[in-house]
Amino acid sequence: MEMSHVPLLASASLNLQELKRLYTGNELFLFRNLGDKDTGDEAIIVYLNSLVDENRLNQQIIRKMNMDLRMNSGPAREIVLDSLHTLGNVNIITEIDEIVSHLADANFVLLIEGHIEAYAVKLPGFETRAIDEPQIELNIRGPREGFTEDLQKNLGMVLRRMKSQDLKAKSFLIGQESQTKVMLLYLGDRVDFRVLNELCHRMDSIRIDVLSDSTQIEEWIQDSTFSPFPQLLNSERPDRIVTAMNRGKIVIMVDGTPNALIAPSTFFEMLHPSEDQFERFYFANFLRIIRLITLFVSLIGPSFYIALTTFHLEMIPTPLLMTFLSAKAGIPFPTFIEALIMEVAFEVLREASMRLPRIMGQSVSIVGALIIGEAAVQSGIVSRPMVIVVAMTGIASFTIPSYSTAISLRLLRFPLMFLTALTGMFGLSVGMFMVIFHACSLRFCGVLFLDPIGSEGIRNTIMKIFLPPVRYRGGFKRERSGSNVPKRQSHYFQGKEWD
């Protein structure tokens, strides 16, 4: 739709003609006339019937306006305008393109003859999904509310948990055609304003026709476009969003998306689910150690097995080596091809289980893995140890809380396997060095991706300590009275002072 940046005229009929031209061929655009057109006292209501609650508009608002017109004498436009202000918040519009934006935002607009202003009132009538338990970030303890596709509901869930007067919000309209509303939430006394200003600049620079998901924003504002690692953490849990803001983070919420983005994010934060804050410290630390172990198993498990069984047989104990050799006897493919076949088959089963209905998907993933694995072993295509290695690698990848991070590890697994198949442990070492070097070079708005300090220091980045975090607020140390304490320092910029 072509936007017309022209001011409104004093004639309601001429404004209506311009709107009809813009909505040519759109049967959702409707209008209703009020008042007496013959006497020149005319008011017109325009709306999109699929967005506005048409029953309430007809039965309550239009009927009330007509009743006021019959019971009161005087100019119809003044009577209608007085009746409109009793409905709630009224937005004053002075241009045609503003009318188009308000109509798309579930408003009805009142055009009054003789007024160069129009009046918009929000009256949504479309259905939205009810608040339900998160589908991806499941937990045993803690709240069970998850975001929906309605931005207002999502903001309500956040505001209900964060009642601080320091909570700030900044809105953007992104998408030339979609005009999608995007909100930035942060705590003014804890955010690093250099990160905030850079992020706002990047948000203003987004040029896109239709914004349908927060992933599009992530792709536009990230520093390294071709990096396999996610540079922003996404979450569908309001409790995790509130915790992130309390640590000085900035939250990006998009209308129509049940996921919010947390910026800036570090690699270690993507390894810890929100459930850790609801567990006692020794349980949380035990689970964090398990995740670190499964992280390396998921990344280098098949590569390590390929290196041992192909180039470094002397590193394997003799009884175990004899077991591997007996299982390998009769297999026509080298170990690398075995691993490649099983990894591709596992990824196909994983993808199929996600695309099928939930009940069928579980059956396909379990039965398919058992049948294909056993059939491959019986037919002599792969060995039993390889099936075990690939199965353990796949299970280990499920322990990574961040789905985007788990996908990155699955993607990096294949080039590491290829390098290992060429030169053994040397190739694996080179591949891991390249991965770590790339991760160390990643930044987002000046924040290192592998920042080991995190928002509250090492105590809450790698391990969780016994005492609750009462001495720190966000990323800044609380100053002690009577001591010579320098300016507060941001962990994002390696302790450099900022004004």
The major sheet is characterized as: 5 strands, antiparallel
Q: Structural class given helices, strands, pairing? A: alpha+beta
Shape: elongated
Number of domains: 3
In terms of DSSP E residues, the strand content is 5-15%
Q: Give start-end ranges of low-pLDDT stretches.
A: 453-457, 469-499
What is the N-to-C order of secondary-structure elements (H for helix, E for strand)?
HEEHHEHEEHEEHHEHEEHHHHHHHEEHEE
Secondary structure tally, helices: 16
Strand order of the largest sheet: 1-2-4-5-3
Distance between the termini: 46 Å
Mean pLDDT: 82
Write down how many β-strands occur, each being a DSSP E stretch of 2 or more residues: 14
Task: Please bin the fraction of helical residues.
Answer: 40-55%
Protein name: Spore germination protein
Family: Belongs to the GerABKA family.
Organism: Paenibacillus lignilyticus
Keywords: Membrane, Transmembrane, Transmembrane helix
Question: What does it look like?
Answer:
The chain crosses the membrane at residues 289-311, 331-349, 361-381, 387-409, 416-437. Keywords: Membrane, Transmembrane, Transmembrane helix. Residues 478-499 are annotated as: Disordered. The chain is 45% helix and 13% strand. It is of the alpha+beta class and 499 residues long. It has three domains: 12-122, no CATH class; 151-277, no CATH class; 279-438, no CATH class. Helix 9 runs antiparallel to helix 13.
